[in-house]
Structure formats: C-alpha cells, structure tokens
Write a structure and sequence with these properties.
Elements (H helix, E strand, L loop, with lengths): L4 H9 L13 E3 L1 H7 L3 E6 L10 H15 L4 E7 L3 H13 L2 E7 L12 H8 L3 E5 L5 H16 L4 E3 L2 H25 L6 E5 L3 H12 L6 E4 L8 H16 L11 E3 L12 H14 L8 H13 L8 E6 L10 H8 L1
Parallel strand pairs: 2-10, 3-4, 3-6, 4-5, 7-8, 7-10, 8-9
Antiparallel strand pairs: 1-2
Helix pairs in contact: 1-7, 2-10, 3-4, 3-7, 4-5, 7-8, 7-9, 8-9, 10-11, 10-12
Bound molecules: pyridoxal-5'-phosphate.
The site of pyridoxal-5'-phosphate has 17 residues, from α4 and α8.
Length: about 350
C-alpha cells in the first residue's frame, strides 16, 4: 500500500507536535557547484535552515520529542552526545523555547578527539541556558550510561526528567523526516524533475524516517546514507527498527526490511568527528561555488560521498541529484585549525 503526500501529512498531523522549525525548508539548485563537478544537476535541501539556534535536522526531530516531553509533564530534559554535538545544541535551544530545563552530558570521545574549548556548539549550549557536564567516555554506549546516571541524580533531586531513551525518542524523531520526504517529493515535482538519487549523512532517525517516508510514497527515488560514525551495532538493522517503530506510531501500513536501507560507512574517514581530506574539500568547494556552509563531522562527509560518486561517472549530465543538508555549521568554529590548514 502506498500513500499520497497529502495522506501521509494527515497521519503525521494527528501526532502531538511542538512547532519549532521553519518548514518547508527550501530546495535549491546549485548551478556553479554542478558546473564545477561537471556531472548531473545537483540540488540541495536546506535543512540547515530549520531556523532555531542555527538550525539543522534535530530541530525537525525536536518538534515531536519536545511535544512528548511536555505531554509527560517533564520539567527537565537530560540529553547528551559529543562535545560538539549539533543534536545537543538544538535540543538545548528547543528546551529554552519550550520553558524546559536542559542538562547536557557531553563526551570528549574515546580516544578523545574533541577539545572542550567553549566554542561552536558548546558555546551555543551555554548561551541558550543548558547546564553542561563534560565526561571522558565514548560517544556511544559510554555517554548513554552517563546520561542515565545524570537523570537518576536529577530525579533524586526532585526533577521530573524526560530522558534521552533511544528506543522511545528515535522513532519519534524519524517521523519528522517522513514529513521531509513529503516536502522533497512535492518540491521536486514542482521543479519538474525526479532525482536519480538523494544523498544524506545519517546513521539513525533522520535516514530511517526519510527512507520510511519515501517507501510509504511508493519509492519515487532512492536515498543513499553515509554514516558519520561506525556504531558498535548493526546500523542497517537499527535504522530499520527505528523506521518500523515510527511506522507503527504513525499508523501507516508501510514496513521496511534491512535491505531497504542503503547505508555506507565508506566516508567516515579516520573516525567520528575527524574531518577527512575529502570532507574538507567538499566544504571548501560548496562554500566557494555557492556560499553554502557544510560541517566537518556530518554534512561534509555526506557531500564528499556525492562528489566521489559524481566524479566516478555514476550520473549523466541530464540527471538530477539531491543532497540533503542536515546542518551542523556551528561546529565549523571548533575546527578552525583543520580548516585553516586545508585552505592554505
Ligand atoms: C549535522 C548532522 N547531520 C546528520 C546527523 C545524523 O543524524 P541521525 O543520527 O538522525 O542520522 C547529525 C546528528 O547529530 C547531525 O548533527
């Protein structure tokens, strides 16, 4: 069974939602970038322009997560990830807007690759009023454990805590990208083309939701995910279960199998948060041809994959390719040294 965009939007509109994002985000053609690559026509979906505290994909996610927190009567959100987490910056900003306290547990990583200089996302975390705790663990299971401990401490102190419990929040976040799929299908139709493929940096809810949305709409075009991290779990299976839990919550009949998720770890480079040479080149090329800023941990790596595939001759000049820009630009300021070195 497939759905029209209007039908799918109707399903999403039945869910509790706290409006945060400027939607729909624009879909823009990149004439000078396309010409520089000499391949297909490249378009960009501007999810870096979702509007809250410098935007990004998590602002879409938070419309459903914050609504859930408010519905549960929470007064405090405990969240966490890496020191330069865009997720945490956008969650802290969403909490500020919703009148919720936000406590962030931020990991230096293992091995530690991120400094804790108050810059980029970390500066903005403080600016929007989050309390911040920096811990020496990895950004996967290690930080999850520390988040749980912080939530227990705050509960013991009498707070009503909404916690970042993966199984509960990831499917909610994915639903926001079902909506993004409807936007993409409507915007590409209005621009009179059907993409040969969409490219995105994702290893979680964003890609799970986008793939679910496109499947529910009858697979109008494929989406290729490039991960920013090698998780200690099976990413394809994880994204499938996020998508299917989201589909159940939404009430649609669509279900995915792991084969439906096209995900690759090929462009992670040396590790999470370490910009590869291809990533730095992608950041520089898009900035210098279009004035659009990518980030060093996520969108730069996703765009490096698109550039590699275009240069490898996968598309003809008549075809159209869409890059979904998931944001992350505040992190640029925390990578000054790497960027200066790459540009000089
Ligand atoms: C800029 C950016 N792009 C992509 C992602 C990946 O999102 P997801 O975990 O939903 O796949 C993140 C996650 O933090 C991000 O900050």
């Amino acid at each position: 069974m497939t759905y029209s965009t209007a039908e799918l939007i109707e399903y999403v509109d039945r869910l509790p939602r706290f409006r945060l994002a400027h939607l729909p985000t624009p879909l823009e053609f990149l004439p000078r970038f396309s010409e520089a690559l000499g391949g297909p026509r490249v378009w960009i979906k501007r999810d870096d322009c979702t509007g809250l505290a410098m935007g990004g994909n998590k602002t879409r996610h938070n419309e459903f997560i914050v609504a859930d927190a408010l519905q549960q009567g929470a007064d405090t959100v405990v969240w966490g990830a890496g020191v330069q987490s865009n997720n945490c910056r956008q969650t802290a900003a969403a909490c500020a807007k919703a009148g919720l306290a936000c406590h962030l547990v931020l990991a230096r990583g293992d091995p530690p690759v991120e400094s804790d200089e108050v810059q980029g996302n970390l500066l903005l975390d403080h600016l929007v009023g989050a309390t911040v705790e920096i811990v020496d663990v990895d950004v996967g299971l290690g930080v999850q454990q520390k988040i749980a401990e912080a939530a227990d401490r705050l509960r013991a102190a009498g707070k009503c805590v909404y916690q970042n419990k993966k199984a509960a929040v990831k499917p909610l976040a994915a639903l926001s990208y079902v909506l993004c799929a409807t936007e993409l299908v409507e915007q590409t139709a209005a621009a009179d083309f059907s993409p040969a493929a969409a490219y995105i940096c994702s290893a979680g809810s964003t890609g799970a939701g986008l793939t679910l949305g496109l499947a529910a709409l009858g697979h109008p075009f494929p989406v290729r995910h490039f991960t920013p991290i090698v998780w200690p779990w099976n990413t394809r299976e994880d994204m499938t279960s996020i998508a299917n839990a989201g589909a159940e919550r939404l009430g649609v009949a669509t279900r995915l199998t792991p084969e439906d998720i096209d995900v690759s770890e090929e462009f992670v480079g040396a590790g999470y948060g370490i910009p590869s040479a291809e990533c730095l080149e992608a950041i520089s090329l898009l900035a210098r041809t279009e004035g659009i800023l990518l980030d060093p941990s996520y969108s730069g790596k996703g765009m490096a994959a698109l550039i590699d595939h275009v240069r490898g001759g996968r598309f003809s000049s008549e075809e159209n390719v869409v890059f979904v820009h998931t944001g992350g630009t505040p992190a640029l300021f925390a990578y000054r040294d790497e960027l200066v070195e790459a540009l000089t």
